[in-house]
Write a structure and sequence with these properties.
Layout: H1 3-13, H2 27-51, E1 60-61, H3 63-69, H4 74-86, E2 90-93, E3 97-100, H5 105-129, H6 133-143, H7 152-173, H8 176-198, H9 207-218, H10 222-244
Antiparallel strand pairs: 1-3, 2-3
Helix pairs in contact: 2-4, 3-4, 5-7, 5-8, 5-9, 5-10, 6-7, 6-9, 7-8, 9-10
Length: about 250
């Protein structure tokens, strides 16, 4: 075998490590990586702004304005909009633009029904499978997160902790499908909680409810864990529905 053929074979079977510089990649590949990264950035930024109430429900957004705001071309904005429509945060109307979705009373009812179906299963499985001591300690800390009335920053901190708590219960369940479902639904819960701040409603601190759920999980009592999560979710639903008062959010 010639020297050239031996070197070629060495590269194929991994005997020689080859580090190709980025500039050696085809221009089309580099462009695709760049566009994918930009699209992801626009998606995350626009999603966060919708959730936190920068844009109001029903508000119309133009592709051009969004491209300027997020320092992007129109293509990444368009791609982000399609993903946000799938998340039910944005509605794409051909030849008209993008519109921030509203949250109706029916939407709220369905949201909480979905949460109950998914998160009660997570609590039950967590009580059955739980063996992550470090995560349990972290969840106990999150469960004691408090906020001050009329103090927006402390409530925003609580929203983050509340999301981490519910996602953490799903992590204890050790079921990737359930975990993805909880992560996906939290953007809608955060949006509701941010909307409540804007009208001066902070709700009731659910710390005690979080703690007893953890107690049931730690005691490996799946039936009680499931029931406590059910009570927690539907108790929250009743307060939010009362707050909504039959109007769109």
């Amino acid at each position: 075998m010639t020297k050239v053929r031996k070197e070629t074979r060495a590269r194929i079977v991994g005997r020689e490590r080859v580090n190709l510089p980025v500039t050696s990649l085809p221009r089309i590949a580099i462009s695709k990586i760049s566009n994918d990264s930009l699209s992801q950035r626009v998606y995350q930024s626009l999603k966060r702004d919708i959730i936190t109430g920068v844009y109001q429900p029903g508000e119309a957004l133009s592709e051009k304005d969004l491209a300027e705001k997020y320092a992007s071309s129109r293509t990444p904005v368009r791609e982000a909009a399609v993903r946000l429509q799938h998340d039910n945060l944005l509605k794409v109307v051909p030849n008209r633009g993008y519109f921030i979705t509203k949250i109706s009373v029916q939407d709220l009812v369905q949201l909480y029904e979905y949460r109950a179906a998914v998160e009660c299963a997570c609590a039950e499985l967590a009580a059955t499978k739980n063996s992550d001591v470090d995560l349990m300690k972290h969840l106990e800390k999150l469960a004691h997160t408090e906020y001050k009335i009329d103090h927006r920053e402390s409530y925003i901190h609580f929203i983050t902790a509340d999301t981490a708590f519910h996602v953490g219960i799903a992590q204890l369940a050790r079921n990737q499908l359930l975990l993805h479902a909880v992560e996906a639904v939290r953007c809608h819960m955060e949006r509701i909680m941010y909307a409540a701040i804007d009208i001066g409603y902070y709700g009731q601190l659910p710390g005690r409810e979080h703690c007893v759920i953890l107690e049931a999980i730690n005691a490996r009592d799946p039936r009680r864990a499931r029931q406590l999560m059910y009570d927690h979710i539907f108790g929250s639903r009743d307060k939010v529905l009362q707050l909504a008062g039959g109007s769109n959010m």
